[in-house]
Amino acid sequence: MKKQWKLGAAVLLLAAALAGCTSGGKSDKAAENGNANNSDISAPWIGTKNTTRINTSDPVEAAVLVSQTLWTAQSEGSRPSSVVVTDVNNWQIAAAATDLIHHPSNGPVLYIDKDNVPQATLDELKRLNPKGADSNGGIQLVIVGPVSDNARKQLDGLKLKTDQIEGDDPAAVAAAIDAYYAKVAGELPMGVIVGSSDSPEYTLPAVNWIAHMPEPLLYVSKDKVPDATAKALEQRSGKASIYILGPESAVSADVEKWLQAYGTVTRIEGSDPYDNAIAFAKFKDSSNGFGWGITTPGHNVSFVTTDSPALAIAAAPFSHLGKHAPLLFTQNSGMPDSVMSYLMELMPKYKDSPAEGPYNHAWITGSEDSITAKAQSEIDDMLEISPADGGNPHSGH
């Protein structure tokens, strides 16, 4: 990892302040040299009035920064109960593991390499000092998926009470996570999200929901339901509420029909990954409360690009604490038309004064090589509160 942060409370505040001061990418030294493109000050976070950027495209770093943003670990209440670690190179297993972010674990997903634990992850686990989940026998660390003897030795050196969900088959591990969560929480969720293990661009919006609520993510391929997924659904005794995420190009009509044997099936889909994420952010099942149902102003969203599943998973905790956010996809240099239109639907309007609110906000995960400063500015503009009559937004100030 390129940068390491050993952050106490004062350093956290200083880093945030420096991030704001350097969001234009220009340090005092750069100004003296007439070079606005170089900065001597690292900016882990870059903020605008309506957005906050996790300023790295390294998934290991991003997971640590998200953790530091949400779990300050300055008091008993700001420490997680347990933390999940999983292989950064297996997006399917990592995505399913975000189900364990939710209570009673109340902790982030951090990344390891199957053969090694990055120093930044070790340092963050020490900083968090997880309390132990009461309903899970005081477990402080849950390893999900395969791990080498060397990586396990590194983790054991932290002397945390550890559990492991083993396996390297994504469908089987996802089913094991479903059973593990039900045991720890004391209840098997009847709702289930089914996504394609071959199409992260359609499946990944699920991670923010399962980090926010208890429903799991189970896997199918386009034309097949794995035995492990079928067995997990059988546990619902025909009463499952199954939500397929993605169009028929990701999960076929035959699989949809087959799933009907296990309960009611609803497909949530869009014509491309951008539309698909929007469709999920808008969806609400009035019969049981499943889904974000975000169609009005006064909300938070989380932006990543489609080309880094590990970054999207690192950002999943933004739906669990703070301004709970669904996942949206955007492009490197700006929003697709469909995303722009959706933010226009969410744009806050005021009658007399912008102090009325409500307000929108966005998390952006990735450095400027992933999502440019211009794209961040565009998102910021589209989230700004505006007068209902369409007049000058600054009139009356």
Task: Describe this protein's structure.
The protein has helices at residues 9-21, 28-32, 59-70, 91-97, 119-128, 149-156, 170-185, 200-203, 206-212, 227-234, 253-259, 273-282, 309-314, 337-346, 373-383; strands at residues 45-47, 51-54, 83-87, 109-112, 141-144, 162-165, 191-196, 217-220, 240-245, 263-268, 300-304, 327-329, 349-350, 361-365, 386-387. By secondary structure, it is an alpha/beta fold. Among the domains are: 79-187, Rossmann fold, CATH 3.40.50; 188-295, Rossmann fold, CATH 3.40.50.12090. Strands 1-2-14-11-12 form a 5-stranded mixed β-sheet. Helix 4 packs parallel to helix 7 and helix 7 (170-185) runs parallel beside helix 10. The N and C termini lie far apart (46 Å). Residues 1-41 have low confidence and may be disordered.
| Total strand segments | 15
Helical/strand content category: alpha/beta
Could you give the order of the helices and strands? HHEEHEHEHEHEHEHHEHEHEHEHEHEEHE
Oligomer: single chain
Radius of gyration: 21 Å
Shape: globular
Structure annotation, total helices: 15
**Spans of at least 5 consecutive residues with low confidence:** 1-41
